[in-house]
Amino acid sequence: MSKDDPIGQLYEEAGFLVFRRCVQMLKDRAEAQDVTHWTFVRALEVGIDVSDRGRAISWLYTTATHRCLTLLRNERTRRRIRDAHPGEVLPPGPPSAEARAISRDLLNRTLEKVDERTGEIALLTWGQGMSNARVAELFDTSTRTIIRARKRFEEAVAKLDPGEAS
Hey, CA dihedral for 64, 69, 72, 74, is it positive or negative? Predict the structure, then answer.
């Protein structure tokens, strides 16, 4: 934003007001700076009318306040979930090399026991994290068919001998 741009002029005029409001609410200067920038980018996106300075500043102030409230609400929700489920919400540390090797071996043994299409579906849904709907699009089939293929793969894993699985 340049000073010649109407939004740039508005930033020069009212940016500190928005920033100050965000600091008051968030208690974090870096986060407040992010919200301030986000607010002015949003003003560009929606094309606010800067000819009425009072209305434009009011819009900026209100929009920044709502953004701060959303961030605070989301943080409280995350904190509440973390407190209710300690140890469950945070991702575990990276698996050991041995665990990765066992997982890879288990995957290979299971892939040998299922047809190629079922294996591809399992790799896309679990390995790549694709949704059932997206994989169904790729295979030009129904989501139900993808769910059945995943179930066949799970059954193949369950049928492995305990010695084979470890």
Answer: negative
